[in-house]
Amino acid sequence: MPRKHSEQLFRQAQTHIPGGVNSPVRAFKSVGGSPVFFHTARGAYLHDEDGNRYIDYVGSWGPMILGHNHPQVIEAVQAAVNEGMSFGAPTAVEVEMADKVCELLPSMDMVRMVNSGTEATMSAIRLARGYTGRNKIIKFEGCYHGHVDSLLVKAGSGAMGIPGSPGVPEAVTADTLVLDYNNAATVAEAFAQHGPEIAAVIVEPVAGNMNCVPPNASFLQALRELCDQHGAVLIFDEVMTGFRVALGGAQGLYDITPDLTTLGKIIGGGMPVGAFGGKKAIMEHLAPLGPVYQAGTLSGNPVAMAAGLATLNLISEAGFHEALTEKTTRLLDGLTEAAHAEGVAFTTAQAGGMFGLFFTDQSRVSHFADVMACDSERFNRFFHAMLDQGIYLAPSAFEAGFVSAAHSDEDIDTTIAAARKAFAKV
Ligand code: PMP
């Protein structure tokens, strides 16, 4: 597929945009080559600047669960724009949004809207610390919660966090403990050692930033019990999984009630939106009711709320997630069969409409180390072989993929057929 215009734009972009992109993974650094510049998106398809069409399994990294530019979402956005782009004052649509979110996620008594997933997790951590009067937090290796200083950490010796980026002071990560995902025993040890100092455990209930790693049967339940025993706040980061793995999120799917939940992606229907919320007793500590400060000029923006609400209403239709899950299973079954037919060691993971592809001979991938042991070079070759056939996968072996309601059976079949050719090459 010729991508001359994309390549030209990428060269031009690098003059005034660091790395030519406004978010690092877009630059194709891990898969190599030049990123695709897109022009138009409709349903399951993306169209690039050279007029090529792709079946999209990124969905803007999750939000586009209905497919791109769903007519009812576009209509809602246009209607909202006509009334005013931003008020910086309360609007009815924010009340409607809060009611809807708390209805879909019964663990949430109250919710505050923000503008990104990063803001949601940053605020949830501050609130948990303010509420408990404690400083330490537990996070898991391979889980990403946005580029919040205290969460941008790597596991150091003794699991104490060391900065994951220059610019993050050691003092800021000193209170972050980084533990192994899907390993409840290490969490129990950390609580035994530091219990009275631990404000919160933050976890992606299905890890979607180290490829896609669903939780082991008892992992989330163990986190719930340990937080209860030690008076710590359990935060489910459902920025990716919320409204994606099930209408009620991962907390609904696995039937575990967190104290706080962070949301993003689908809740904005493609507009920049995040949210955090949970138990009333905790949320009441937030300004203006309580002393924990948090604010936003554009928070609850009416255009963004309109896109999000229209999306939430459409995905609330009976059977929506069942159909999405079934379609995703069909895709993964087809890919696995194609890989094995070509003798490629390959396995997949799935939670609802979210999936992972692993080039490994292990049958199940549960830990960060398992993900790191996969053949990422082989993934990179597979990625490019798919891209050249008009299939757009996430440009990294460490990202989850997403199916939308707009993907047709024919799109899935086309993808599987392309994969068979790609597996033969890699
Ligand atoms: N939490 C999770 C689980 C995420 O996947 C992401 C983004 N991929 C974030 C937080 C950060 O969200 P944002 O990029 O909107 O800041």
UniProtKB/TrEMBL annotation:
Q: Which GO terms describe its biological process?
A: protoporphyrinogen IX biosynthetic process
GO MF terms held by the record: glutamate-1-semialdehyde 2,1-aminomutase activity; pyridoxal phosphate binding; transaminase activity
Location (main, coarse): cytoplasm
Q: Look up and give the organism this protein is from.
A: Alcanivorax hongdengensis A-11-3
SUPFAM superfamilies to which the protein is assigned, alphabetical: PLP-dependent transferases (SSF53383)
Q: Which Gene3D superfamilies match?
A: Aspartate Aminotransferase, domain 1 (3.90.1150.10), Type I PLP-dependent aspartate aminotransferase-like (Major domain) (3.40.640.10)
The UniProt entry's GO CC annotations, sorted and at most eight, read: cytoplasm
Names of the cofactor(s) = pyridoxal 5'-phosphate
Subunit (UniProt) = Homodimer.
PANTHER family (alphabetical): GLUTAMATE-1-SEMIALDEHYDE 2,1-AMINOMUTASE, GLUTAMATE-1-SEMIALDEHYDE 2,1-AMINOMUTASE 1, CHLOROPLASTIC-RELATED
Q: Which UniProt keywords apply?
A: Cytoplasm, Isomerase, Porphyrin biosynthesis, Pyridoxal phosphate
Record-given protein name: Glutamate-1-semialdehyde 2,1-aminomutase
InterPro entries to which the protein is assigned, alphabetical: 4pyrrol_synth_GluAld_NH2Trfase (IPR004639), Aminotrans_3 (IPR005814), Aminotrans_3_PPA_site (IPR049704), PyrdxlP-dep_Trfase (IPR015424), PyrdxlP-dep_Trfase_major (IPR015421), PyrdxlP-dep_Trfase_small (IPR015422)
Cellular location(s): Cytoplasm
Question: What is its pathway?
Answer: Porphyrin-containing compound metabolism; protoporphyrin-IX biosynthesis; 5-aminolevulinate from L-glutamyl-tRNA(Glu): step 2/2
Entry similarity comment: Belongs to the class-III pyridoxal-phosphate-dependent aminotransferase family. HemL subfamily.
Catalytic function, reaction form: (S)-4-amino-5-oxopentanoate = 5-aminolevulinate
What CDD domains does the entry give?
A: OAT_like (cd00610)
**Residues bearing PTM N6-(pyridoxal phosphate)lysine:** 265
Give the EC number(s) listed in the UniProt record: 5.4.3.8
